Design the sequence.
């Protein structure tokens, strides 16, 4: 496996060194290898909605897309408000646990909701 750094802007693996700088051929971003070595990589573990807003436990969100309910013929309609969400660490991408009126307990992906 290669130890070459990825582009911090577009995450391309095709970056190459040019004296003290690294250059990405895909997005033309240039960065210093020295600055990258001094700055520790921080993983952002916050859950964000479709607009990029940070979600927290207890927030109210609105569904932005009609969502089919697995194992049922019903659909959670666009504009449905979901109150008191709970953030969970779902391995399948479903990171919101909630209770929706008329459907009951279910999990949602944060990319299909926006903060109300």
Sequence:
């Amino acid at each position: 496996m290669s130890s070459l750094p990825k582009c911090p802007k577009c995450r391309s693996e095709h970056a190459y060194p040019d004296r003290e700088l690294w250059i990405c051929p895909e997005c033309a971003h240039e960065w210093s290898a020295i600055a990258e070595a001094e700055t520790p990589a921080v993983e952002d573990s916050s859950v964000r909605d479709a607009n990029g807003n940070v979600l927290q436990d207890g927030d109210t969100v609105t569904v932005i897309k009609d969502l089919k309910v697995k194992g049922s013929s019903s659909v959670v309609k666009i504009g449905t408000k979901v109150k008191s969400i709970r953030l969970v660490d779902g391995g399948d991408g479903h990171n919101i646990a909630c209770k929706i009126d008329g459907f009951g307990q279910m999990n949602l992906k944060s990319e299909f909701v926006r903060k109300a």
The mean pLDDT is 86.
